[in-house]
Write a structure and sequence with these properties.
Metal_Hydrolase (chains A, B), ACMSD (chains A, B), alpha/beta, Amidohydro-rel (chains A, B), homodimer
C-alpha cells in the first residue's frame, strides 16, 4: 500500500478559521466573549476532504494519508497559553472527526499547543489526549514557536526532554515542522520551512547522537526532503569529521527520517540517492504549499509519487519508501493497519 | 583558465586576530588604548597563503582565486560602527597585500563594515576605497548583520538601495554571505550559511524581479550552491506560479548566480542539472568550512573541481563554469585578466 505521511487539513470548514479570528480578536480586546467553535456538520467535514485531499489521494493511487492541522495555521507565535491550547484542541478535534469519518484513508497527527519557552505541560497533556484518547499516531513539533525569531533552544536542549519522554513512552514520532514566519526575512513556505529542516538536522549532528543515547526510541521526521540537507550531504559528513563528531548520515539513521516533499524529479533523485532508503518516507504535503501543475512536464508539483516512481528504485526499495518505513516509524499506524488486516 | 570565485583568507597571520581581540577588549573596557594592528612582514603574508590556499589551488589545477577576508570573522553582530570600519579596513588591507604579492593568483573581494540597521555610508565608503583605490573586484554582503537574529529587512528593501547604487555604478557583484551565528539554533557552517542563501533567493523571488528592474546591473552570487534552492527548484517555480509571480528560475537569471561549493558529487550533479549553466560559477571555499578528505572516495571534501569535472558537462559548459561566467559576473576581474593578456 501507499502511505503519504505528510498531509495537512488545509481545507477545513470556515468555522475553524472564524473561531481562530475570534480568539485573536479577544486577545486584542479581552472584553469580548470567550469564543466557541460554531457547529460543523459531519457532511461539512466529509465534503471538506472528499473533493480535496481524498480525491487527489485516490486519483494518484495513494491508500492512506497521515493527516494533521494546517501547519502555517498553528501560529505558535501567539504567546497566550490558554489560546494555544484551545486552538490546538479545536484543530485536533476536527482532524479527528475527518479521520473518524474516513478511517480507511486517514491517520491523525496532532498540533501541539506550543508557545516559545513556556513549560511543556500543556503540550504534553494535549499529546496524551490525542494519542491515548483519540488514537493519533504522531505529533508535529515546532522547533521555533516564535515564528521566525528562533528564540527557543536547539531541540537537543534539556528544555525539550519532558516532551521527549512522553513521545518515547507513547512510541509516536514527531515531524519537525515550523508554522508561519513573522520575520519578513523568511518567507514561510519558501525559506522558513526549509531553514527549519536544515537547522534541526545540524542541531542533531552537533549533538553527536547524545540525544538519542538518552532517548533511543525518539524519532524525528524532517519534512520537505530535509530542507538543504541531502543536497549538502558531503558538507555534513565533512563538518562532523572536522569537529570530531560521528558521521551524522550514519549516526542518526535510527532516529531521523526524511519525507519526499521535494517538487521536481532531480530533487527526488538526489534524495533517494544519498539518503539510505530506510530513512525516506513517501509524502506529498498535497494541497499544501505548492499547488498547480508544472507547465513543462504536465505533472502536478506536489505529485511526488511520480518522482518517486521515476527515481529508479527497486521494487523492494519502493515498498520501503511507500509503506514499510512509515509502518516502522509510526508503530501506532502499523498496529491500526494490522488490526484492520491491511 | 580555472577561476575559483570563493576563497577566504582563513590563514591570516596571527597579528590580525590579535588586533580583533584588542578591539573587542576595548569595547568591553573603553579605558584600554585604541588597538593597532602589529606590523606583518611581506614574508609572513607570503607564507600564510603560499603553503595553504596557493598550494592547494595549484595542486588542484586552479589558476586564480577570488579572495576575501574570513567570512565567519566578519562578525557584523558587533554593533559599534567605528570598530566595524577599522576591522573591515584591516582585513581588506591584508587581503590586498596578499593579492598584490601574488597578483597572478588572487583577485580581491572586500568585507563591508556592516552593522544591523545602521546607515550605509561607512559601508559605501569602504566599498569605494577597496574598488577604486585598491582594485578589488567585488564585495561580500551580509543579509543578516545581527548574526543569526535576522533583524534586517530583506535585501529587496529600500534600506539597501544606496549600496546597490554604488555596486551598480562600480559594476561589481556582491556575494551574499553571512558571518558567525550568535543564535544557538543555527550552527554557523551547517545551518546559518545555508539558510541565508535559501532565504535571500526567496526574498528575490517574492519581489518578482522588481529590484532588478530598478538596478539592472546589480548582480548577486549565492554561495554554498545556493543553500537549499537547487534541491527545491520545483518548489520555487510552483510557489511563484501560485503567487502570480514570474518564475524566479527564469526571471532572476541575469542577476543571480550560484557557486559550486557543494561537497559531494550528487549535489554538484543536481546543481549543474537544474541551474542554467550560465548561472553557475566554479568555487571551492577551500580551506574553509569543511577540510579533510572523504574516506569513502579519497577526494577532499572541498575539491569541487573533481565534482564539476565529473558532472558530465560539455567542454563549452565547463569553460563557462570555470571561466566565462566569472569574467562576465566580475567585469573588473575580466578587465584585469584581459590587460594581462590572459
Amino acid at each position: 500500500m501507499i502511505i503519504d505521511i505528510h498531509g495537512h487539513y488545509t481545507t477545513a470548514p470556515p468555522q475553524l478559521q472564524a473561531f481562530r479570528d475570534a480568539q485573536l480578536a479577544r486577545l486584542a480586546d479581552p472584553a469580548l466573549p470567550v469564543p466557541r467553535l460554531a457547529p460543523i456538520s459531519d457532511d461539512a467535514v466529509r465534503e471538506s476532504v472528499e473533493n480535496h485531499q481524498l480525491k487527489v489521494l485516490r486519483e494518484r493511487g495513494g491508500d492512506l494519508m497521515v493527516f494533521s492541522p494546517k501547519a502555517s495555521g498553528m501560529e505558535h507565535h501567539v504567546t497566550d497559553r490558554a489560546t494555544a491550547s484551545a486552538w490546538a484542541e479545536a484543530g485536533n478535534d476536527l482532524v479527528h472527526r475527518a479521520a473518524s469519518l474516513f478511517p480507511e484513508y486517514f491517520a491523525a497527527v496532532c498540533q501541539l499547543p506550543q508557545t516559545a519557552n513556556s513549560p511543556l505541560d500543556d503540550v504534553i497533556a494535549e499529546l496524551r489526549r490525542c494519542v491515548e484518547q483519540l488514537g493519533f499516531v504522531g505529533a508535529n513539533l515546532n522547533p521555533d514557536p516564535s515564528g521566525g525569531h528562533w528564540t527557543s533552544p536547539p531541540l537537543t536542549d534539556p528544555y525539550w526532554f519532558p516532551l521527549y519522554e512522553v513521545l518515547a513512552e507513547l512510541d509516536v514520532p514527531a515531524m519537525v515542522h515550523v508554522s508561519t514566519s513573522c520575520n519578513p526575512a523568511f518567507h514561510t513556505l519558501g525559506a522558513h520551512y526549509l531553514n527549519a529542516d536544515t537547522s534541526v538536522f545540524m542541531q542533531l549532528a552537533q549533538d553527536g547522537g547524545a540525544l538519542f543515547d538518552r532517548f533511543p526510541g525518539l524519532r524525528f521526521v524532517l519534512p520537505h526532503g530535509g530542507g538543504a540537507v541531502p543536497y549538502h550531504w558531503g558538507r555534513y559528513r565533512g563538518l562532523a569529521m572536522r569537529m570530531g563528531l560521528p558521521d551524522p548520515t550514519v549516526r542518526l539513521t535510527d532516529n531521523v527520517f526524511f519525507d519526499t516533499c521535494v517538487y521536481h524529479q532531480p530533487g527526488v533523485d538526489l534524495l533517494t540517492k544519498v539518503v539510505p532508503t530506510g530513512n525516506v518516507l513517501f509524502a506529498s504535503e498535497m494541497l499544501g504549499a505548492v499547488r498547480g501543475v508544472d507547465p513543462d512536464t504536465g505533472v502536478a508539483w506536489d505529485d511526488t509519487k511520480q518522482y518517486v516512481d521515476g527515481a529508479g528504485l527497486s521494487q523492494q526499495q519502493l515498498q520501503q519508501v511507500y509503506e514499510g518505513n512509515a509502518r516502522r516509524v509510526y508503530p501506532r499506524l502499523d498496529a491500526k493497519l494490522t488490526a484492520e488486516g491491511r
